[in-house]
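Can't paste images in this forum, so I'm doing it all in text. The chain is below; anyone willing to post the predicted structure tokens underneath?
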Amino acid sequence: MDRRRRITGGAQIEIIYLLGKLLNNGFSLNNSIHCLGLKYPNLRYVFNKMTTSLNMGLSFSGNMRLLNLPEMMISQLELAEKNGLLKKVILQLGELMAIKNKQVKKIKLLMMYPLFIFMFLIMIIIFIKSFFTFDYKKSTLTFWLEFSDWFIIVAIVSSIIYLLFQFIIIRKSNEYTKVIRKIRLPIIGEIYRSYYEYNLLFSIGLIIKSGMKISDICEMKFSKKSSYFRIQKRLIHHLKLGGNIADFIRYNELMPKELEILTVSGLNHSDLGSEVLALAEIKYDETLEKVQKIITKIQPIVFGIIAILILNTYLKILVPVYGMMEGMY
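Text version of the structure:
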């Protein structure tokens, strides 16, 4: 088995984050990689290979494939390296990945208690349904209580099946399809969309600032596994059919709508590239803000579901008791 597969997502985040910090503190690229080899002795073979490749004059971004990073991220690092912005991009990616990982851990901790309550209530409902039989007057309320049991079961099973289906499909898809599916996910899809739009804005800003035209972009070489390669092929096909850039941006689901500035602005390449890079900075801040606020969206939904379950459980116990007491008078 390829040893690179042993590099986990958590290790990737730590490595990118520390690499950005080391570069920002004045360490050279070689020294930074050496420090990472000391911190992660089990991955020293990876960092030794990186150092050897750099000494041979090979690109740093190409070596990042040893860490199993997404091709879209590697393409962004490659463009940044060519334009002298490698340190800035590594620092931003490291910060974004670290905050995202921190929020995921917070969500897991915060969800422990709600999930325990949720499972406990489900067990109570099953227990009442299985071991207690009440003879009481049927009403609209009792009908909806009976219906709620099936609704809750169907909702839970459907949600689990949907999440498993999405996970399997995303895992087996190419990078472009993964991106599309991730940005369509409920709640967290907004975060993925902001991140990918930041990535595209930054990369396109660098391409424009370097003086490239649309024809040059169509001839650029990207990895066939990269989302950039798929977008490039779609752009070429769109232009061959007589389409224009404005329509491509407007109707392509992954393209940031901020790029419509390309079709209306009269700026030269350098200034236009700077404008797009500024938009990328705004999108980066927006992504950080959305990541930090994700907990405020997820937790109320979970507690709302639990509140409905608690109310349903109370009614399921009290309504039959009330019906039996009513029959005694």
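Residues 3-69 form one domain. The chain is about 75% helix and 0% strand.
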